[in-house]
Write a structure and sequence with these properties.
By secondary structure, the protein is α/β, with parallel strands linked by helices. 47% of the residues lie in helices and 7% in strands. The longest helix has 49 residues, at 380-428.
Length: 826
């Protein structure tokens, strides 16, 4: 840098702001331009620093500061020009406080400057250039610092300068100072809001919008320099700039002002970068008399000053993005006159005002360095103003972000509602194939494969399901293992490969997030399924989840929803058909369900054929089959002994199978162990619990299925039989069903069937042929009436159809109806 002896001398100190120059004092003519522009009297800097030749000595700075005041209601401090050197550029005094009680009066003044008469302008390309300037203005300390200075000060100067540049680029993006928006879209304030690469391409730099705004940007850039250097009250300067931008919208005002500052900021750092390499930059730097390497002169104070400036610029950048984002809110989903918008836009003029005022402070800080050489000093009051401005903008930003969050929530709700209506219409519309519907079930990128094939352990595209019946297994992560096991059996028993596939759609609880435990549980379930699954619960479209809850009434129990090859919903829940008939239920339509019922009758095959393969063997051998249940082990011992004795007495081959009790608990397990140990009868093995559940679930499924096709207990024998079995299961004792092959069938409750079989000697003579065993038993069961009985009927909570009246199976009287709540622990 040039020495102080090259500056023309005067005989007295430079005047402070507001002082008149002595008559005859010469000043440099006012120049207009970039950051190099400055209006300043010709003064002798040696009057301030006795040691002027910084090439030979370390300068002795004058650290006497004028009294400084924090920003209260009235503030008369300069924005950032250092004290003692005010003559180089008259300081701006800011008598308007940041937290003035008269905010409404200030807002009225700001609004009075607003007279937009231009079309809406997309200012994001310009803002992208501003962000690039802030990012690229990165000092390279080693290139500036002389060898001797690097050895002495390098450890302090280089980290500061490099960090300062990083802070501008990172703080305004995502690394060091991430924006805490709280929005669902955490990239709301990122340059990638649109195509970031496009912003940096030459085509964007040459867009018409940049050309249109180039003149006002450069004009405001000159005004900032001139008014910052020429002194004046900061509020008035800010208002003057707002008046010059009166015809622009609020977002355009702040972007133009920001771009104007960025020109000065970029030119400043461009000279600083190049002055050791480029002769032109060196000469400009010499004339500016900048502090050598921006670190040696100021040390820690300079670093603090620039950290504060960068913090302020970061807040201004955030506010700018937020203001633009308010303008970009889709009017289709939120009205500009809505209370949420007006509550936010009421603060936008104030946000623009304080942002521009902050830019003026930053510009003054840069001007403060010009002509400073080694005597750079920082004003405490100026530093406080920068910090308070940053705080003021942060408060404004917090309010704007809160309102933005509210607005985005409203928009998301309306968008979601529109998407849901569209999804419902999609399911109601005929299509060429099922691909549109399947695609809408998921959220995924084009490069993702949303399906997981459990049999091949690979990810697949949706096209593997094209033109097939798709059975959507809808459940949460609490899919009962017994249901999963039975579905495995049915899925694997298909002898002929039908044109349908099962697809599991896992649904998480509303508003819940996946924990590590949930992740493990999901993958364990997914990997245990031989069919297709969603690759992750987050891929399931929220509109599909809502449809399942509202239209299909999914709560907790699994559903099996059928989509035909054209994407039409052909069955809201095919699980009852699946439990009753297995793969034979394909294609799971209502018409096919009616046809299957027409071919069915109340017999042992309907009751248990799909549960245990031994049933079919016994049917084929025309054996007498006995299914019995209950959890009273004493009754079980007595009944099995009496039934076997009765069968032996008449030469009948009897096969007995224990089916437990609905909602099997510990007592059923204990009975199972005793029956096995004492060889009382056959049992389900090895997963007895799953088959016990399956037996009773099939009964409930039959009840549901019959109800859905419009049948009732009064006109349907099968429903009457199911109701009787449910009544038997609700008793304290056991029950039994006897059938000869797949022909005659009879049944009775425990307190009735046990006495009858124990007295087999009284009726055994009537069984003159094994085929007559069941009819004779039925005759005596029907004729036996205990002295007292108390029958109860507990219908499944998911049964759907609840008959208005129920007749007692024992005496034929109407049963009383009660509401029962049960908590049963073994």
């Amino acid at each position: 840098m040039a020495g102080r002896d090259l500056v023309p001398a005067t005989t007295k100190n430079p005047p402070l702001a507001g002082e008149k120059l002595p008559q005859g004092t010469k000043t440099t003519p006012a120049l207009t331009g970039g950051a190099s522009t400055l209006t300043t009297p010709l003064v002798d800097h040696r009057m301030h620093n006795p040691v002027t030749d910084h090439r030979a000595h370390t300068p002795v700075a004058d650290h006497s500061l004028r009294p400084s005041h924090e920003l209260d209601h009235v503030s008369t401090k300069p924005l950032s020009l250092r004290p003692g050197l005010a003559g180089r550029g008259h300081p701006m005094s800011g008598e308007r406080g940041f937290f003035s009680s008269d905010e409404s009066a200030l807002n009225k003044q700001i609004q009075a400057t607003h007279a937009p008469d231009m079309e809406d302008i997309n200012v994001r390309p310009v803002l992208a250039i501003i962000e690039d300037i802030l990012r690229l203005a990165r000092p390279s300390a080693e290139e500036h610092i002389p060898t001797n200075a690097l050895a002495t000060h390098g450890a302090q100067t280089h980290p500061h300068l490099d960090m300062s540049a990083d802070k501008v680029s990172r703080g305004a993006y995502h690394d060091e100072k991430p924006y805490q928006t709280g929005y669902r879209d955490e990239k709301a304030y990122q340059p990638s809001y649109r195509d970031e690469k496009a912003y940096h391409s030459p085509s964007y730099l040459e867009t018409e919008i940049v050309k249109i705004l180039a003149f006002p940007i450069n004009k405001v850039s000159c005004e900032i320099v001139c008014k910052s250097a020429g002194g004046g009250e900061s509020h008035q300067v800010t208002m003057d700039l707002l008046k010059s931008l009166a015809s622009y919208t609020w977002d355009a005002k702040i972007v133009i002002a920001f771009a104007a500052f960025a020109i000065n900021y970029g030119e400043f750092w461009l000279v600083e970068h190049l002055h050791t390499k480029n002769p032109l930059a060196k000469n400009i730097a010499t004339l500016k008399d900048l502090p050598d390497t921006m670190a040696v002169a100021g040390g820690g104070e300079l670093r603090k000053q620039f950290d504060a400036v960068i913090d302020l610029l970061t807040e201004i950048l955030k506010v700018t993005h937020c203001i633009i984002e308010f303008k970009e809110l889709p009017p289709l989903y939120i009205n500009s006159q809505s209370p949420e918008i007006t509550a936010a836009t009421a603060h936008i003029p104030s946000a623009v005002y304080w942002s521009i005022r902050g830019l003026l402070v930053c510009a003054s800080t840069l001007l403060n360095l010009i002509g400073g050489g080694h005597e750079f000093m920082t004003s405490t009051s100026a530093s406080w103003e920068i910090l308070n401005l940053a705080h003021k903008l942060k408060v404004i930003l917090d309010h704007l972000q809160n309102q933005m969050k509210i607005c985005k929530e409203i928009i998301e709700r309306k968008k979601f509602e529109d998407a849901y209506i569209k999804f419902k219409r999609l399911l109601e519309t005929a299509h060429i194939d099922n691909m549109r519907v399947l695609t809408e079930l998921f959220r995924f990128r084009e490069d993702q494969r949303p399906l997981y094939d459990g049999s091949r352990r690979t990810n697949e595209q949706l096209t593997v399901l094209k033109m097939k019946y798709v059975l959507l297994l809808i459940s949460d992560l609490e899919l009962p293992p017994e249901e999963l096991h039975v579905l495995h059996i049915i899925h694997n028993e298909r002898s002929v490969r039908h044109d349908y596939e099962v697809l599991w759609l896992p649904i998480m609880a509303h508003g819940s997030t996946m924990t590590e435990y949930d992740e493990k549980k999901f993958y364990d379930l997914r990997n245990s399924m031989p069919w297709y699954s969603a690759d992750h619960p987050n891929m399931v479209n929220p509109v599909a989840i809502r449809y399942a809850r509202e239209e299909l009434h999914f709560t907790h129990r699994p559903l099996l929803v059928v989509l035909d090859p054209h994407g039409k919903l052909s069955n809201h829940n095919a699980l009852p058909m699946m439990w009753i008939w297995g793969a034979k239920a394909f294609p799971f339509t209502k018409d096919w369900e009616r046809k299957l019922w027409e071919e069915s009758d109340w017999n042992i095959e309907l009751l248990a054929d799909h549960i245990d393969p031994r049933i079919q063997e016994w049917i084929n051998a025309n054996k007498v089959i006995c299914l019995y249940g209950g959890d009273d082990i004493v009754w079980i011992r007595n009944f099995t002994a009496a039934a076997r004795a009765a069968a032996r007495s008449v030469g009948v081959t009897l096969e007995m199978l224990y089916v437990g009790k609905r909602n099997p608990r510990e007592k059923v397990r204990q009975c199972h162990d005793v029956i096995t140990r004492e060889n009382l009868s056959h049992i389900f093995a090895p997963e007895y619990y799953d088959y016990v559940w399956y037996f009773w679930e099939r009964l409930a499924s039959m009840w549901n299925s019959k109800k859905q096709i419009g049948r009732t207990v009064e006109d349907d024998r099968i429903m009457k039989g199911i109701l009787d079995l449910l009544t038997f299961d609700s008793s304290e004792k056991g029950w039994a069903v006897f059938s000869r092959g797949n022909y005659e069938i009879t049944m009775g409750i425990g307190e009735k069937v046990l006495p009858v079989v124990e007295r087999y000697a009284e009726w055994a003579y009537e069984v003159d042929h094994p085929d007559k065993f069941v009819p004779v038993l039925d005759k005596h069961l029907s004729g036996f009436h205990p002295d007292h009985h108390c029958h109860r009927l507990i219908l499944p909570g998911q049964a759907g159809y609840i008959p208005e009246t129920v007749v007692c199976t024992e005496c034929g009287k109407m049963m009383d109806k009660f509401v029962m709540y049960r908590c049963c622990t073994d």
